[in-house]
Design a protein that fits this description.
- This protein has 328 residues and is α+β, with helices and mostly antiparallel strands.
- Strands 2-1-5-4-3 form a 5-stranded antiparallel sheet.
- The protein starts with a helix and ends with a helix.
- Helix 5 packs parallel to helix 7.
- It folds into 2 domains: 112 residues, PAS domain (Beta-Lactamase, 2-Layer Sandwich), CATH 3.30.450.20; 206 residues, Hypothetical protein af1432 (Orthogonal Bundle).
- It has 14 helices and 5 strands.
- The structure holds fe (ii) ion.
- The site of fe (ii) ion has 5 residues, from loops.
- This is HD domain-containing protein.
- It comes from Paenibacillus planticolens.
């Protein structure tokens, strides 16, 4: 071990030094203390002996890619201690050159406070959130066999519109916000679970009273979500639930203030609700429903253009119509 490398072993974090083939050259006392391995037990072995098999393959792929390009890499490993217990740690691996030789310096931070759980990456967290919200939305609207396709299309169109909008507005929206809105968009009509079927699927025109009952669905939806967020008082879902609530409550508001339930105007309507309101109407009109035939696409686009500034945010209509035309 050259003197230059031995300085790294003096750090108070757990440190492992390997050669460029990931063969362990040394570890420091902190590493020994956390993992239970003694230097003489693992020096000379491949670093792979520490693996638990629980770190996602993707993590190793990213690590190899960065290290091959001579870049430092940080990520989360789930390794095993000498006694076979799992060890969750955040590691930064830095490639260095000393005296013409290449080495990797791995500095670990123990994630002790989640050591009894499972580390969930942001991508996986988003997938779990999306799946739970999808199941929830479907179970609330199970009476309509067509609803799954509608909800899926609304979600896809929301994703496309948000990305187009962001491109047109120099990435004004964060990736996290976009993903939360996409995940939450599927929830927009959960309040319909509280509306009697006879009214919900009535062919033909609704009476004044029936329309009033339908128009309670945004507030019924908020009520359902309030109960869920009370039970699921968890950071994992807080942002998704807040955005879901906003979409559920405001997706029937109109730009000119003539919508329901609060008659909000313009940008008083949360942006995520403006987006879902537009794609929801587009998909409803282009689809066949119990009470109406599907409209031809051009007729729907003309209708949306006509509703610029009355029902919808004009800027969103322009971007959406251009996007649909471009896709044909
Ligand atoms: Fe609705």
């Amino acid at each position: 071990m050259t003197t230059g490398l031995s300085y790294f072993l003096m750090l108070s974090d757990a440190v492992i030094i390997t050669d460029k083939n990931h063969r362990i050259m040394d570890i420091n006392p902190s590493y020994e203390e956390i993992t239970g391995y003694r230097r003489e037990m693992i020096i000379g072995h491949q670093a792979g002996i520490l693996k638990s098999g629980l770190t996602p393959k993707n993590t190793y792929d990213q690590m190899k890619k960065e290290l091959t390009n001579n870049q430092a890499w940080s990520g989360v490993f789930i390794n095993r201690k000498q006694n076979k217990d799992l060890w969750h740690s955040n590691i930064t691996i830095t490639p260095i050159e000393l005296d013409g030789e290449s080495y990797y310096i791995g500095i670990f931070r123990d994630l002790g406070d989640i050591s009894e759980g499972i580390y969930v990456s942001e991508t996986r967290k988003s997938k779990i959130q999306n799946e739970i919200l999808r199941v929830l939305a479907l179970s609330c609207e199970i009476r309509d066999p067509e609803i799954e396709n509608h909800l899926f299309r609304v979600q896809q169109l929301t994703a496309s519109l948000l990305r187009e909008y962001n491109e047109a507005h120099h990435s004004k929206l964060s990736d996290d916000y976009i993903q939360h809105v996409i995940n939450a968009s599927i929830m927009h009509d959960i309040g319909k679970s509280g509306i009697p079927e006879g009214i919900l699927y009535k062919p033909g025109k609704l009476t004044f009273y029936e329309r009033n009952i339908i128009e309670t669905h945004p507030l019924i939806g908020v009520d359902i979500l309030n109960k869920i967020s009370h039970e699921l008082n968890d950071d994992l879902f807080r942002q998704e639930l807040d955005i879901s609530k906003s979409i559920v409550e405001f997706h029937h508001e109109k730009w000119d203030g003539s919508g329901y339930p609060h008659r909000l105007k313009g940008n008083e309507i949360p942006f995520e609700a403006q987006v879902v309101s537009l794609v929801d109407v587009y998909d409803a009109l282009t689809s066949r429903r119990a009470y109406k035939e599907a409209w031809p696409e051009e007729k729907v686009l003309d209708y949306l253009i006509e509703q610029k500034g009355s029902s919808f945010n004009p800027d969103l209509v322009d971007i959406f119509v251009a996007m649909i035309r471009k896709s044909k």
